[in-house]
Amino acid sequence: MIVLLVGGGGREHALGWKIAQSPQISKLYLAHGGPGLNPLGESLDINGDDPDAIVKAAREKSVNLVIVGPETPLAAGLADRLRDADIPCFGPSKAAAQLETSKGFMKDLCKQIGVPAADYGRFMDPVAAKAFLRQRTAPYVVKADGLAAGKGVIIAQTLPEADEAVDLMFAGEFGAAGAEVVIEDFMVGEEASFFVLTDGETIVPMIAAQDHKRVGEGDTGPNTGGMGAYSPTPIFSKSVYEQTMARIIEPTLKAMRDRGMPYCGVLYAGLMITDDGPKLIEYNVRFGDPECQVIMRRLKSDLLPVLYATATGTLAGRSLEWSDDAAALVVLAANGYPGAYDKGEPLKGIDTANALPGVVVFHAGTDIRNDVLVSAGGRVLNITATGATIGEAIERAYHGVDAIDWPGGFCRSDIGWRVLDRAP
Ligand code: AMP
Ligand code: GLY
Questions:
Q1: Angstrom distance (rounded) from CA 374 to CA 376
Q2: CATH class, 119-185 region
Q3: Smallest Cα–Cα separation from 296: which of 266, 318, 271, 272?
Q4: 211-262 pLDDT tens trace
Q5: Is CATH 3.40.50.720 correct for 2-93?
Q6: Domain spans of the chain, in order of start
Q7: How far, in Å, from the CA of 32 to the mean position of ligand 1?
Q8: Which residue from 153, 182, 187 has its CB within 8 A of the most atoms of ligand 1, so it is best to mutate?
């Protein structure tokens, strides 16, 4: 099978690493590539955010399957364009991608079908938004409606802060994403990320992971794209899984079908596990980053035929096999992230880390300059490890971190603390 992979972050390195192991792959093309992915395939000189360029390349290279990692090309209609050209695509249509691209769309749909989630209001102007805030109680959750790279959510402890958040969004702080604002009730609990594959009809459940969104120790400080992850997680018990499938995932996918926008691809449910069971925080129409990386480390089955079946409506009868081993991931980020940071600093020790038991390093933001591997982003390296227990996986991941020589980088030292605190 000839495959084209779109996206060039840590998530796509993990997907490429996994599918490159498939006996069914004959050629892997990369729409972004990078130092991590390039040894696995052939990098094409195209703009991965340009649907025309991708459709053209997929035709020219006789690609059998396009796998789309990030949400932006899906929001731009890449999957629709590929399907129009009869090229199988792993990823939802632009209409189905609204589950992520419009929080208002997602909230209205979930309310209509009774999915457990926070109560909310949708607003097009600050006066109505502020009046609504005065009928609610703190803390207030204020969200820009559209895609804002994970940054469009402000949790305000007081009314003045919430008013300020509303003003910021309508003033264009998050660009067009903030033309509409959603205000939600605050949910208390622990967060987990759960993933399913679906071709629109059949659902193949994957597994859950937890990530650490905040930059600081103890989950404090500003939000980031994610500073670490691990799987499995004890809070995602069998009962939580069953409730998630029956009350959240299945009704949502049925509703999307009924509304003429069947969902095809991976659906990522961001959940709050509350005392009343799992509640939906958000949907994403892609794998989580860095959750995908730990999930790929635990997947025993060949991923490629299952992604192909997802893209071609032939998922019925398929399932996935998972390792009992745990997997953990520590992000090495550039000093200053998620604020301003330097790029172009040499990175050493990756081969040494990869030689350690259970360790695989994925590249999230690297580049080659003058034959030297250098940092080229905020989140730069993902050090993953597997182990017999979550504790062992985390310990091994930190051994991997110790092997990396990069004075300009930092990581959190407490990845997995919630699980380790629970360990007997
Ligand atoms: P979102 O982009 O909608 O996933 O929100 C980003 C983060 O904000 C989530 O991962 C949660 O930590 C937090 N968050 C969002 N909505 C709520 C809510 N209704 N209650 C509590 N926390 C929330
Ligand atoms: N790790 C959170 C996300 O991918 O949105």
A1: 6
A2: alpha beta
A3: 266
A4: 999 999 999 988 888 999 999 999 999 999 999 999 999 999 999 999 999 9
A5: no
A6: 2-93, 119-185, 190-312, 326-422
A7: 30
A8: 153
